[in-house]
Each structure stands twice: as structure tokens, then as C-alpha cells.
Here is the input.
Amino acid sequence: MNLGLVLSGGGARGAAHIGVIKALEEHNVFPTHIAGTSAGAIVGGLYAAGVSWSEILDFFKSITIFSTNRYARNKPGFLNSVNFYDDLKTFFPVDNFNALKKTLFVTAANIIDGSSKIFSKGQVIKPIIASASFPGVFTPTEINGKYYVDGGTLNNFPVEPLKSTCDKIIGVYVNPLKEVSINDLKHSYSVIERAYKIKVAAESMNKFLDCDLIISPKKLVDYATFGMNNIDAIFDLGYNTTKKELEKNDNLFI
Here is the structure.
């Protein structure tokens, strides 16, 4: 059986994906196809390369995003995305999708023409970096003469490439919409930000029907996109939520 796993973007909240993988494996559920965006592309890419969940967790906890050697010089972004290549190269000795142990799809957004791109062949490290290049923070990533930023800009829940190839699909969404009151929206920029978050969430949740199982820990709203000090707590949320969902759907993947 071809089993698909969709991993959304979410910054530091992407550590929940690692907990999901651990819980799935403990229940003898092993995805064969993975589609990821942003943080989901990093976790999904490492998992597709055969890296264990514990090694992926160690990577998330050890990576220093805001170190001075990553600062961009005369480029549109605070951090130079290319400077993350060597961090990932350790896990991808052969920089090619064909060398992976699982089928992988990675999304990124073309910052010039506004199109969404799904990468699934050729070099794999740069597409992963591009998919996680949060606009304004990381510089756009150049691939074959085109420039890409965070895949979540246009597609934060990339179920599409799995629909025609997988018998069943598990979706993991780590960007739940936070509850607010009108008193929280006191400024024009807060209304604009809220509207954008609603749009992104709606586009993703409309695709939940394409999945046989959805895992979306609600308490992730308590953690910030770049809250790298809470990796263990976020990991535990993903793990415990998945265990509960699998116990309720114990015959789904037999």
C-alpha cells in the first residue's frame, strides 16, 4: 500500500511533525510518499533520506538559525538561505531526489512570477532550503535561474501530489488558527495579519477532506513560529496527539 504523509509549514511548530513520525512508527505505520512545505519539507526530506526521528529531533534542537555567519550581505533578507546548505548536506550525501528512500515532493513559491512549484526530481537540498525560506527573513533561493521562497506562501498543505499515487493519506497541520476576540484586533496591521492567517488556514483546511486521517494539535497555538526554545514541548504535542488519533483509528492502515 502506498501511504502518503502531508507535512505543513509552521516554523518551530514543525517539530510536531517529528513526534508524529515517532508515534506512527510505534504503531507500525510507515509512509511511503511524503509531501512537505517549509518546516514540513525539512522534516519530510530528512525522513525520506532515511534519517531517524531521533536524529531529526537532534538536528532541530542543535541548528542555530540566527548565528552571525548566516547573516545576509547586500541581499533581500536578514539570513542568507544558501548558508544552510552544509547543515543539510551531512544528511544527503547524494544531492538528488532519486537517492532518497521514500518518494518526496517539496513545494516552493516562485517570488518573481508568483507560481507554485512542486520539486520531485534533480537536486534535493536547495528545494528544501527554498521551501523553508520565510519571506523577509531568509533570502530567496536560486534554483536553475529562478528564485523561490517559502512554499507555504502559496501552498501550506501540499496534498495534491499524493492524491493520484497513494491509497491512503495522513495529513499533519501544525498551523492551527488561534482564537481571538475583537479586542485583540486594535490596530490596522493586526486586522491585516488576522485576515492573512484566516486565508492560509482556510486554504489548507479545505483540503483536509483529501486525507484519511488529520493530525492537528490545537495547543500549538501557544508556540511562536520562531520559538526554537520549545522544541521538546512541541515534539511531545505531535507525538501524544498522534497516539490518540491512531488509537481511535486503529484499523485504518491495516
Observations:
- The helical segments are 15-26, 39-48, 53-62, 85-89, 125-131, 160-163, 188-205, 231-248.
- Confidence is low (pLDDT under 50) at residues 65-72.
- The two ends are 10 Å apart (CA to CA).
